[in-house]
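Table S7 (text form). Paired inputs.
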Amino acid sequence: MLSKKWKFWIKKPLRCSPVSNQRLNLEQWMNNIRSRTDVALIQKINETDVGSKRLRDAMLYAVTSGGKKIRPMLVHAVSDLGDPHEFVVDTVSACIELVHIYSLIHDDLPCMDNDDLRHGKATLHVKYDEATAVLVGDALHCLAFDGLSRACLKVSDSQKLSLINILTRASGSEGMVAGQVLDLGLVGRKSTASKLEKMQKLKTGALISAAANMGAVCALSLKPGEKKSISNFAQIIGRVFQVVDDILDSEANTRTLGKTAGKDLRDKKPNFVSALGLQPAKDYAKNLKKEAIKHLDVFSTRANRLIQLANFIVDRKF
C-alpha cells in the first residue's frame, strides 16, 4: 500500500497517441512525458513488495525529486517514429530513469562527488543517511531490470532481451560505471578534451545513447538503417549534453541548476570549459548539435521532435 504521504503524486497521466503528441508544443510535450514518467516510477514502487517502510519512503523520495527526464523524452521521441505500444514505452522510460536516478544517488555520495543538493532538494544521503542512499540506489537499479523482464511487458522475447542488453551494457563496466571510475581518476589533474570525451562518452553519453536505442526497439516499424541513424544521433547528443552541463556549472547559479554550481572548479575537477575555454566550449556544443541533427535527415519532418529536443539540450538553462 502506498504511504499517504505520497498519494498526492498519483494522478492520471496524459495519454496521447503519437499523432496527438506531435500537435503539442515542446513545453507541453515535455511536461506530458515528465508526468507520465513520474506516474510510472511511483506505480512501479507501489506495486513492489518493499520490505521496509523507511526503504519505500526513501525510494519514493528519490524518484519524486524532479529532474529533466531527458532520457525518457528520448525514448518517447524515438519510439514515436515507429508504431509503439503506449504501456511499453512508459515502462521502458521509467526503467531507464530508475537507472539514472540510482546513478545520481551514488554519484552524490561523500565517497564520490560529495554533494548535498540535487534538483533543489537535499541529496538522499543528507535526507536519510549514507547506508540508506547506497541501498536505495541498489534497489532502484534492480527494479529497472525487474520492469524490463516482467511478463506484463508485452513485447517479443527478442525485444525484451535487446532492451535488457542495451541497458545492462550502458550502465555497467562497459558504460556508466567505467566512466565514473575515469571521472574520479581525473580529479586534481589537467585533462585534454579528447580524454574528457572518452570519459563522458561512458559516464553520461552511454545512458543517453541507450535511451534512444531502447526507443528504437519500441518503434517496431523502424528499418535497420534508420536505427543506425538514431544510434549515431544519440552518441553525439550525449556528448552535447555533458558539454552544456560543464558550461552551466561555470555560468549558472545553484538556485537555477538545483545543484551546487561551480563544483567542478571547487573540487579541481577538469571539464570541457577548463579544457577548451568558455566560448570555445559553447561553439563546440553547437557544432556537435548540428552534426547530430544531420543523422536525422533520413526521417525528414518525422524527426522534428528529436530536433526540438536537441535544441533544448543545447539551449537549456538547468
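Next pair, protein 2 of 2.
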Amino acid sequence: MSTPIVELKAVGKHFRGADGSARAVLEGVDFTLHEGEIVALLGQSGSGKSTMLRIMAGLIQADEGQVLYRGMPLYGTARGIRMVFQSFALFPWLTVQKNVELGLEAQGMAPDERARRAAKVIDLIGLSGFEGALPRELSGGMRQRVGIARALVMEPEVLLMDEAFSALDVLTGERLREEILELWQSGQIPTKAILVVSHNIEEAVMMADRVLIFASDPGRVRAELPISLPQPRKAESAEVRHLIDKVYELMTASAGRRGSNGLISEREVKLQLGDRLPQAGIAHMEGILELLAEEPFHGHADLPKIAEETELTDAELLEVLNALILLGFTYLTNGDILMTELGGQYVKANNTERQELFGKQLLEHVPLIAYICHGLQQDKSGDLPEDLFLKLLRFTLSEEEAERALRVAIEWGRYGDLFEYNFNTGVIQRPELTPKL
C-alpha cells in the first residue's frame, strides 16, 4: 500500500440535542487515504459523511480520536487539503477570476502570480473566456467548475469532493466527472489523492479505487469494496454492472437480519420513538410494489433494474426500500428486492383496503405514529399541536431531521387514515373529528 496522507483513528463527533445531551454523529471512524487513490464514500442521508469530510479538511474538530496529516496531528485547516462543495459556495459579487484567486490572495500571494496561476487553472478546467463573468451569469455546471478551479489553484495534495456533481443534471455531472478523471490520470493536477462523497452508486464505481459504505446512527465505516478495473471504465460493461450490483448488496445488507434460509426476515434494529424515518412518499412506495408485482419481476427483482425502471436516484430508492422493509411489504437479500405475502396483498387490494392495511402496519412498526395516535385518543379535544411532537423529536434528532421525520409521519398517518392535519394551524386531529368534504 502506498504512503498514507490522511488518517482517521477512532474519530467521533457529537452534536448537542435540544435537552443538552450529546448525539453521536460519528463514532469510532477508522479510515486512511493513501497516495495515488480515489476513494468514494457512500451512505444514506444523515449518516455523517459530510461531517467526516469537514473534519478531514480541518473545518470542524473531532470530539474523539485522532486526525493525522502526513503523520502529524491536524489542528485547523491544512494547506494541502481542499474541499469542493455541492452548493458551489461561490461569492456572487466576485468574477470567476476573483473567485478562483481568493485562496491565493488570502495566503498573501502577489497579484501577478495569483493571476497567472488562476488563469492556468481556469483554462485547465474549461472556463477560458469566462474570467470576467459573475456566478449568476453561469450555468450550474460552469459554477461547479469554478468551485473545482478554486480548489485546484491551491495545488492540494488531497481533494475532498462533497456531493460535487449531485446538483447538476445527469449529462453535465457525467461530463465533469470524466474531465476530473482525465486531469487526474494525465497528471495535469498535482493532487495525490481524492475522496468523493456521493449518493450515486454508478458514479462511485466509475471513479473509485475503493468504495466505502457508511453506516448511520452513528456514522462509521461498515464495509469496503476494492475496485481494480482499469480506467477508463465503461458504464455498460458487465464488470461495472457486477460491481454496481455488489455495492447495492453491501448498502442494503444492514436493512434486515438473515434467517436460516439466508433471506432477510426482519429489520436488524426496530425503530424507536425518536429515530429518523425513511424519506419516502406513498406514491413511490406503491409504484415500486406495483412494478415489482408485474412482469418480468413477479415479486423478485435485481435492485439496479428497479433503479433503472423507476428513474429514482440511488438515495431516493434506498429511502423507499427502507420504508417498504420497515412496513413489512418487501425484504432484501443479496442485493435483490423480494415482495412479501403482505406486499402482494397490498398490490391486489382496492384503495380503501390499502389504506387500512397501511395504517395497521404503521401502528405496528412506526412508534412515532403510534405515539401520536395514542396522544390523540387520550386528549379530550382530539387534536394536538405538531410542536408537541417536534419538541420530543428534538431530544434525539437535529432540528432539520426532526422536521423531516414529522412531515413523513404526517403524510403516512394521513394516508393510513389514522389522523388528519390542518396545514393552516399545524394541528394534528383525530380523523372522526375532521369534517369530510
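The domain at 264-346 is CATH 1.10.10.10 (Arc Repressor Mutant, subunit A).
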